[in-house]
Amino acid sequence: MDSSRPPAPHPRSLAALRARHGDAYKWRLLIAMSVGMVASVMSATIFNVATPHLMRDFGLGHDAVQWAVTAYMAAMTVAMLPTAWLIDRFGFRHVFLGALAILGIGSIGGALSPAFGVVVAMRILQGLAAGMLQPMSTLMVLRAFPLEDQGRAMGLLGFGIVLAPAVAPVLGGFLVDHFGWRPIFLIVLPGCIPALIMGHFLMPLRDVDTPSGLPPRHGFDWWGLGLLGTAILALLQTASGLHAHGFASLPTLAGVAIAAVTLALFARHSRRVPGALIQASIFRDRPLRVGTVVAFTYGLGLFGSTYLLPVFMQTVLHFNATSAGLVLLPSGLALALMMPVAGNLTNKLATHRQTASGMALFALAFFMFFAVAYGEHPAWLAAGLTVAAVVSRIGLALTLPALNIGSLRTLPKDKTAQGSSLTNCVRQVGGTLGISLGAVFVETRSQMLGGGNGAEHEAFAEAFLIIGVLFVLATVIALGMKAKTAQSETVSE
After folding, report:
1. Calpha distance 326→175 (Å, rounded)
2. Do the Cβ atoms of 11 and 167 come closer than 8 Å?
3. Among 85, 121, 154, 309, which residue's Cβ finds the most Cβ atoms within 10 Å?
4. What is the three-state SS of 156-171?
């Protein structure tokens, strides 16, 4: 026996998995992540159709049942923050499988809930899981794929993520109409279970490749999580209460003040504490700084438009729900189909230019919405709205893969997890604010214009114009995301 012969690699080591699966390994890993991500997105988007049934079964009003939605969003947003530390401490594999297990437990518990309080608790579990999974998708692409394949991988990953919201309302409506609200929790399991199985067999054990592991040098930053979590929750609560309280009310001003103070304290904390939750040093990277601003605007426009367009069509133009859905259906398909194309373009175009191009198209779409809203051609109204919606979604498809890769690619390897958590969190906060600010602006502006359908019509048109101008500014900002260098990274967990 030759004692000088090196020992065979562990069957679950990264080297053994790559040898076993060959060049297909990274793509199979991408499928596992995609299935898990689709499950988490379904948990977020399918719940709203069950709201009337929950109100009826538990005898609740709109204010009470909204706790299930608010609790999910808050849990998801806050859970994005410690994901980087969890990955450093336990490894990508364990965090991914753990998040899927939590998502599955929340889904089963939600379906069996005997009281609405249990429903809220299970939605919090689902939100925590979704919040951990979202930053991991971008991080996995950066670590598992070489530079030349990252754009394509991000596009394919995005295809499933954006297709889920298009399918969820239809599937959820069918389930609720025929079986009640409980199956909408269980519909997540067909994604969770395969993702758990694939993740178990495909994701390497970190401590096999690095016997000492790669634990963080510092303990968990509870103080930082408390400060940043308080700021985010204050912003979310303030945004959700804008409709009831208005901009100048005491609750709104108090919420903004709390958010501002805690953010300032966290900024000071992150500069002084070496193991801070989000280290201040990552903001020295210009693409990340610019990408964070663009991500906030992206969320603001995406979620805000998702709210404004259906409401505009049904309350002002008097479309029924089916007609409004048909107008928006081509845009959803365009978004899903463009994601792989946009991913491939990311491998050929500079990420800052592709991001800016996508933001510019989104701005153009809202100038088109503005023109259609003020137009006097009812025969072309639905067609104009459809075309504008398609243009907006093409813009969003171009933006997402380029923004995710361009804002993180030049970060040091040990900071990419923090960067991914930060950009995803900022995008989610922007989306929540977009929904609330859009609703409050339209209501307030229509009252200022005297009320009635004509006033609402003009208020929506002005909202579309403001979003268009905002995205023009974001287009200019996105051009500053140009990276000096780029780096290719591989999986190490």
Report:
1. 20
2. no
3. 154
4. HHHHHHHHHHHHHHHH
**Amino acid 491: pLDDT:** 42
Give the number of residues written for the chain: 493
For 278-484, the fitting CATH number among 1.20.1270.10, 1.10.287.1080, 1.20.1250.20, 1.10.287.600 is 1.20.1250.20
How many angstroms separate the CA atoms of 120 and 471, rounded? 35
For the chain, the maximum distance between any two Cα atoms, rounded to a whole number of angstroms, is 92
pLDDT-derived band at 363 (thresholds 50, 70, 90) equals very high
| Alpha carbons 18 and 22: distance in angstroms, whole number | 5
Q: Record the pTM.
A: 0.77
Give the Cα separation of 396 and 131 in Å (integer): 21
Structure-token pair, residue 104 = 């599955």
Look-up: residue for tokens 């919040």? Answer: 131
Domain ranges of the chain: 8-214, 278-484
pLDDT digits (tens, 9 = 90+) for 277-313: 888 888 888 888 888 888 888 888 777 777 778 778 8
Classify domain 8-214 by CATH number. 1.20.1250.20
- Yes or no: say if 172 and 187 are a contact pair by the CB < 8 Å rule: yes
Q: What is the DSSP letter of 8?
A: P
**For residues 223 and 417, is the Cβ–Cβ distance under 8 A?**
no
**Which tokens belong to 386?**
């459809």
Numbers of helices and strands, H then E, in the chain: 19, 0
